[in-house]
Amino acid sequence: MSLILYNHPLASFCHKVLMALYENGTPFENRVIDLGNEESRASLARLWPLAKFPVLRDETLDSTVPETSIIIEYLDRHYPGATLLLPADPTDALNVRLWDRFFDLYVQEPMQKIVADRRRPEDAHDPQSVAEAQALLRTAYGMIEKQLGEKTWITGANLTMADCAAAPALFYAETLVPFDGSQPRLKAYYQRLLDRPSFARVLREAMPYFHFYPYQENLPAQFRPEQSHA
Question: Exposure pattern of 146-170 as b/e (b: 16+ CB <10 Å)?
Fold first, then answer.
């Protein structure tokens, strides 16, 4: 198979690319990387010495493509499908890139800071950093609420790369800083993302790994691991 995605089913940035692949039914080999396994990690580091996933390997074009937004743009250009994830119009494309970066930088990153703090030893927690990350998420939620207006997806009527960024970012962020009553559009948008078949598939495949998530008790009920795995 031409395309190989090096990834992990629990990783939110991997979910972003998996959603894009599933959205267009793009054939690929799903190669799961265990960073705790020396051989598995080395197979990723040979392609991308930073050893961060996801990384896409295209054997046909002899290309190694890191970074989620670049991977999705690469797929849109070389393996396009029915869903155009980056609009052809330059102005529309710029708006999609803006909101793609927004979700990566202002939802994904603070979410990951909070989760990382939970994993630290008891004497290494940083309450101030967590509080700042929580505040940033609340600000981001308000901006998303305003941006949505009457739109179906974050930039308009069509699902794009920005929505692929939004889905996993909001899925995990909501377990840390729940949406509130002032965000009805955000709540409805989040439900549309959960219902989208491409993202629903991503979450189904991640379910066997959710018992590793430190805030598993806050996951939506249908994705919560069995009590025996807790």
Answer: ebbeeeebbbeeebbbbbbbbbbbb
